[in-house]
Every structure is written in structure tokens, then in C-alpha cells.
Design a protein that fits this description.
Length: 116
């Protein structure tokens, strides 16, 4: 991924990640390692929380379509290195957060999704 092009968004608008019963499997250990690294990074990059958690749902049986979504996140991170939260030491730090919830928005299992 060193020579890949950068992306402007972590996931394309309208792109749906779903269970792909007929898709080709990818290496479980590699996929889980990538998700674990992205979950660690979400402490300072709240802009990738939603899509990372969406991809994390499919760790049990990752397909090529799921790996494509994870690679899109990595391409986005490459192009947005200057973004993120920096937690200053010794200063008063105040953080405001906003959330957005989609009640029963998942077409497959009717689970709710949220974003912050």
C-alpha cells in the first residue's frame, strides 16, 4: 500500500458492506490484524470510527469485498495524515462530540448503526 493513491473519503457514499456468501475468502489473520490496527487508531482519528466498526463486523468470515473496504480506509489515511486529535499534556482539554444514529439501517439483520 506504499505506492497506492490516496482517497478523499474513508468509504464511498452509498457503498454497502454486506455478507458476501459467494465471495472469495481472504486470510483471516491478516484481515483481523488490519482491523485491530485501525481500532487502535480510532482513539485519535474519530473520522474512521464508523467505517472501521462496520468492517469489524465481518472478522469471522472476511471476503475480498470486505478487504477492499479496509484498503479504502488505508488509502484515506494516507491522504489525510494531518488530521486527527492531539491530546495536549498538562493543559485543560475539552472535547465536544456529536452522534448520528440509523435505527435498523442494516438491510441484512436490521441492526442499528451509529456514527460520531
Amino acid at each position: 500500500m506504499d505506492n497506492c493513491s490516496s482517497a478523499k473519503v474513508p468509504i464511498a457514499f452509498g457503498y454497502k458492506i454486506y455478507v458476501d456468501f459467494s465471495g472469495e475468502l481472504v486470510d483471516h489473520k491478516t484481515y483481523t490484524g488490519m482491523i485491530d490496527s485501525l481500532m487502535y487508531l480510532t482513539t485519535s482519528r474519530p473520522d474512521i470510527v464508523f467505517v472501521t466498526c462496520l468492517c469489524a463486523r465481518y472478522q469471522a468470515d472476511p471476503q475480498v469485498s470486505h478487504m477492499t473496504a479496509v484498503k479504502q480506509i488505508l488509502r484515506y489515511l494516507k491522504g489525510s495524515k494531518a488530521l486527527g486529535l492531539w491530546y495536549p499534556a498538562g493543559n485543560d482539554f475539552s472535547l465536544q462530540a456529536f452522534t448520528d444514529v440509523d435505527h435498523a439501517g442494516c438491510k441484512l439483520d436490521r441492526k442499528s448503526t451509529s456514527d460520531g
